[in-house]
Amino acid sequence: MPSYLNPDNLGPWGIYLKQVDRVTPYLGHLARWVETLKHPKRALIVDIPVELDDGTVAHFEGYRVQHNLSRGPGKGGVRFHQDVTLSEVMALAAWMSVKNAAVNVPFGGAKGGIRIDPRKYSEKELEKVARRYTSEIGLIIGPTKDIPAPDVNTNEKVMAWMMDTYSMNIGATATGVVTGKPIDLGGSLGRREATGRGVFTVGAEAAKLIGLPIEGARVAVQGFGNVGGIAAKLFAEAGAKVVAVQDHTGTIYRDSGLEVARLQEHVREHGGVAGFADADVMAAEEFWGIDCDILIPAALEAQINKDNAGRVKARILIEGANGPTTPTADDILHDNGVLVVPDVIANAGGVTVSYFEWVQDFSSFFWTEEEINQRLVKIMRDAFNAVWHVAQQHKVSLRTATFIVACSRILQARELRGLYP
Ligand SMILES: NC(=O)c1ccc[n+]([C@@H]2O[C@H](COP(=O)([O-])OP(=O)(O)OC[C@H]3O[C@@H](n4cnc5c(N)ncnc54)[C@H](O)[C@@H]3O)[C@@H](O)[C@H]2O)c1
């Protein structure tokens, strides 16, 4: 047991370790290297001292964890949250290793975080925090080393500050040090919609494989933000009926299908789905038992748990959010024949277009949105079909199959590179 972990509470890292144990029997000769996956390569804890607007000095704790770099530079977001811990960032970094390998983009896994409640600080204070953090982790990040991106409570603006700080420190503009940047600073077209587009793409593939026509399929979505909103729009455009949407303001329902484009306008104007005309209001707890074919959790973690998993009627559940299904719920859904398309593949569209952003920054040559979307769809379809094949071959869930594909790729790279020295 590493000294930096509490043996009584391994937190999210403990869940990740169990997932690795579950796939180990399927790794063949590569199982010899499995301990690689159980040890983050590098974990940096930094102190971020900042002078606040009132003249006092506050200290924030920040992390950057590089879980595995066998397949390429680290890649993963940075979150600003008061409760973020080293264990959580370690697990998130490991899941990025799995996600990047699952869609076969040439990145390892990394993640970062700062223990701060961003709602309590001014924009100027947050800028200082982001800049000092970037400077402190500057030792281990870089376009060929580790490339951060937005995550919970960070956005394009934070990425612009990070890119500028790193560039100032090295004395040259380095757009490729972060992804998820504004378009005017080397960001990529299609990045904002990429995760929702990936969710739709794998959902449509899964539906085809189980013989469920998208035309007329009943879809329910939790979360109508970046991921859920775009996924709902694409399903509606493909002829599906989006019958229910839940967000932090309420749950709405329309048996004949909601008008998604109008709902998007309503959310832009009012900040949530509550109050949308042409829909009935539904009790929040009824949402998970709704009569639908495709259910898309695209909001928060641990939403589908032992209390509501048994009520899910959908044939396919596509995890747009990270970690929306608890391990117990996963087993219940499996027993009830619900096909779960796991987060590590379903929401990998975002990191795939981040990869495109990084490639475009390196070559200083930018692609059209059409090219980006075509390439995204091909990568997502190929990745999903490879995972499907492994699931059939070993008679395992798509989650275990995704881990088998991804961990095999990571450990294959480990074996080919050999151990240094
Ligand atoms: N944006 C990406 O590229 C990306 C990539 C991979 C994974 N994800 C994951 O997808 C999820 C959603 O991310 P996003 O970028 O769409 O965020 P977002 O902030 O754009 O949208 C979040 C949505 O969740 C809803 N929500 C919040 N609290 C809720 C509650 N208690 N009950 C019901 N709904 C609630 C909000 O109303 C909003 O509609 C997160 O888990 C995120 O980690 C996002």
TrEMBL record:
The record marks D151 as: Important for catalysis. CDD domains: NAD_bind_1_Glu_DH (cd01076). Substrate binds at K75, K99, S354. InterPro entries: Aminoacid_DH-like_N_sf (IPR046346), Glu/Leu/Phe/Val/Trp_DH (IPR006095), Glu/Leu/Phe/Val/Trp_DH_C (IPR006096), Glu/Leu/Phe/Val/Trp_DH_dimer (IPR006097), Glu/Leu/Phe/Val_DH_AS (IPR033524), Glu_DH (IPR014362), NAD(P)-bd_dom_sf (IPR036291), NAD_bind_Glu_DH (IPR033922). It holds the Pfam family ELFV_dehydrog_N. NAD(+) binds at T195, N226. It comes from the Bacteria. GO terms for biological process: L-glutamate catabolic process. GO terms for molecular function: glutamate dehydrogenase (NAD+) activity; nucleotide binding. Keywords: NAD, Nucleotide-binding, Oxidoreductase. The keyword Nucleotide-binding applies. The keyword NAD applies. PROSITE patterns: GLFV_DEHYDROGENASE. Gene3D superfamilies: 1.10.8.1210, Leucine Dehydrogenase, chain A, domain 1, NAD(P)-binding Rossmann-like Domain. The active site is at K111 (proton donor). SMART domains: ELFV_dehydrog. Residues 188-418 form the Glutamate/phenylalanine/leucine/valine/L-tryptophan dehydrogenase C-terminal domain. Belongs to the Glu/Leu/Phe/Val dehydrogenases family. This is Glutamate dehydrogenase.
